[in-house]
């Protein structure tokens, strides 16, 4: 018999709402999340509008926000959406063994400090060429090792596994706009073939070259039934 898989919990953080209820209300009302960019100075850019997440309170979803001071907003938003989904599913109150709960996300790299990176490139210029030794030296002096680690695409899924004690399969895919849908599909197949009984799945990504607020993750939990 083909193992049935269903969505049992949903959570989201979006430009039109920081939870499922407010997002759905905005969608039904046709409310736009686009407005003037507020998270960095866009006055010199030809486009000065974006769909930013607004008034997000990370402290609602994390007992120790300082733990994630080096993490990008993609990780913080993923934690908020995932916490909503896990609470909605009721899985935290179940007796599911930790090794039967996994995570599969569709997530890209974190928020790079574009201005810092370009200053490193500028400092390493010598006669129109990049001096790799100078570039490496400035990187060692200027870059924060923990923040650079948090940029890795595997970090959101790793953090979620740690927060929810998910000791089952932990994977991430990076396939541009298809990533979240692929992650949910792959998580479904993991349950169907019996490698897990529940998966936390969805996506978290950002599209800005600076540390901004334009991340739109949606996470959900899948269960075998």
Could you characterize the architecture of this molecule?
With 225 residues, the chain is an alpha/beta fold. The protein has a single domain (5-112, 151-224), classed as Thiolase/Chalcone synthase (Peroxisomal Thiolase, Chain A, domain 1), CATH 3.40.47. It is built from 7 helices and 9 strands, in the order E-H-E-E-H-E-H-E-E-H-H-H-E-H-E-E. It has a 5-stranded mixed beta sheet, sandwiched between helices. Helix 3 (114-123) packs across helix 4 (132-142). The radius of gyration is 19 Å and the shape is globular. It starts with a strand and ends with a strand. The model is unreliable at 211-219 (pLDDT under 50).
Give the topology.
Blueprint: E1 5-12, H1 20-29, E2 34-36, E3 49-51, H2 73-89, E4 101-107, H3 114-123, E5 125-126, E6 129-130, H4 132-142, H5 145-150, H6 155-164, E7 170-173, H7 179-192, E8 198-204, E9 218-224
Q: Low-confidence stretches at least 5 residues in length (pLDDT < 50)?
A: 211-219
Number of domains: 1
> What CATH architecture label applies?
3-Layer(aba) Sandwich
Instruction: Report on the biggest sheet.
Output: 5 strands, mixed
Q: Count of DSSP helices?
A: 7
Helical/strand content category: alpha/beta
What is the spatial order of strands in the main beta sheet? Answer: 1-9-8-4-7
Could you tell me how far the N terminus lies from the C terminus, measured between alpha carbons in angstroms? 12 Å
Overall shape: globular
Q: CATH superfamily, called what?
A: Thiolase/Chalcone synthase
**Residues in β-strands, percent:** 15-25%
What percentage of residues falls in helices of 4 or more residues?
A: 25-40%
Rg computed from alpha carbons, rounded to a whole number of angstroms: 19 Å
What is the name of the CATH class?
Alpha Beta
Can you count the beta strands? 9
The helix-strand sequence is EHEEHEHEEHHHEHEE
Named CATH topology: Peroxisomal Thiolase, Chain A, domain 1
Mean residue pLDDT: 89
What is the subunit organization of this protein? single chain
